[in-house]
Specification:
single chain; alpha/beta; 12 helices; globular; binds pyridoxal-5'-phosphate
């Protein structure tokens, strides 16, 4: 047995040590300027992010959750001339995501319709979307889960056929690609999160909306600042949801490294794959050729004894986690949602998913150690039943 070491699920220190000089220099300019909310730093970051993504506009907001809410509210205003959607308006989404995905739909006034996922990609199944469409469907909210693109060709086709909007939840996939195009630029809007553990993470909460629509961009900018079209005169029920200068400054620094960090994670994923692929009881993450996975999470599927494996990893110092143990349609808060079909792939995947540590500067020795622990576990539990 390998000598026990501790490998936390996430260690942000390592990246900070690498970026320290740049970050501290930028923070000093914030202190000097004393301009904290929106302002030049935020505008600059918005420009850089738009450039990086190949989007016409980006709008910095207070969180990824707000990015989803404001994108949806902007669309209600733009497409329906209404402040909010109605509860009869349906937005089709995946039940296998973080809480915020469905929460945002309800906050924008609409009703989530959960449809099943593809068990290989973990993402929303376009065939299931088709079956869920009714005369009340207004939009589709796909999530690029763990950093892997949803099947955008098919989703765009369904959306076009039925005149539906698409808002992409890109919270886990900053820098991810689908057929060479950046995720978050396929739909009417893309919603990004800068929560510290995300691919592009700030030092606090933050979020961003990308869009090519000038009108939508203007609505969202009004919404993030209390619905004020002009100062001290509210046109809509808005939010206090502005990105702050410190986050923007840090994000500007980190944006320059995001491709490099994503490719470091991709290398780690390859190493995991090489050292785990002979284990029959687990499925490795699937990455279609035409996608670039950002591996915000490295999630395997364990057909049997997942909880024992999780415990075994913890006993050996490895911080593995489950994203997500309970699908959204099983949560009390989303009892008002509609579901399409039995969602059986979702339930199977939720009972098998297990995420391993993956972050820039995770060491080779740590990857090997984790792989060894997993191999040892299955050597002691060889049967498939
Ligand atoms: C993190 C996350 C969000 C919410 O982002 P916050 O910045 O934490 O509000 C939304 N959707 C998904 C899939 C996420 O992972």
């Amino acid at each position: 047995m390998a000598k026990k070491i501790k490998v936390p699920f996430l260690d942000l220190q390592r990246e900070y040590i690498f970026l320290k000089k740049d970050i501290e220099k930028k923070l000093k300019t914030c202190l000097k300027e004393q301009r904290w909310i929106l302002g030049a730093k935020v505008e600059q970051f918005e420009k850089e992010a738009a450039n990086f993504l190949g989007a016409k506009y980006t709008i910095g907001v207070a969180s990824g959750t707000d990015a989803l809410i404001l994108a949806l509210r902007g669309l209600a205003i733009q497409r329906r001339q209404k402040e909010y959607f109605d509860s009869k308006d349906e937005i089709i989404t995946t039940p296998f995501s973080f809480v915020a995905t469905a929460e945002a739909i309800i906050r924008a006034g609409a009703t989530p319709v959960f449809v099943d996922i593809d068990s290989h990609t973990f993402n929303i199944d376009p065939e299931a979307i088709k079956k869920a469409i009714t005369e009340n469907t207004v939009g589709i909210l796909p999530v690029h889960l763990y950093g892997l693109a949803a099947d955008m060709t098919k989703i765009l086709k369904v959306a076009q056929e039925h005149n539906l909007f698409i808002v992409e939840d890109v919270a886990q996939a900053f820098g991810g690609l689908y057929q060479g195009k950046k995720l978050g630029t396929f739909g009417s809007a893309g919603a990004f999160s800068f929560y510290p553990s995300k691919n592009l993470g700030g030092y606090g909460d933050g979020g961003l909306i990308a869009t090519d629509s000038n009108e939508l961009m203007e609505k969202i900018k009004i919404l993030r600042d209390h619905g004020q079209k002009t100062q001290y005169n509210a046109e809509y029920i808005g939010y206090n949801s502005r990105l702050d200068a410190i986050q923007a400054a840090i994000l500007s620094v980190k944006l320059r490294y995001v491709n490099r960090f994503n490719s470091l994670k991709r290398k780690i994923a390859q190493k995991y794959a090489r050292s785990l692929r002979s284990i029959q009881q687990i499925h490795l993450p699937y990455e279609p050729q035409y996608c670039l996975h950002t591996y915000n999470l490295y999630t395997i599927k364990v057909a049997h004894r997942r909880s024992e494996l999780l415990q075994f990893l913890h006993q050996h110092g490895v911080g593995a986690r489950i994203y997500y143990p309970l699908p959204l349609h099983k949560m009390k808060a989303f009892g008002c949602a509609r579901t399409q079909g039995r969602l059986s792939a979702t339930e199977v995947v939720a009972s098998r998913a297990l995420s391993l540590p993956i972050y820039s500067f995770l060491k080779e020795t740590e990857i090997h150690y984790i792989a060894k622990i997993i191999n040892n576990f299955f050597r002691h539990h060889p049967s498939n039943t």
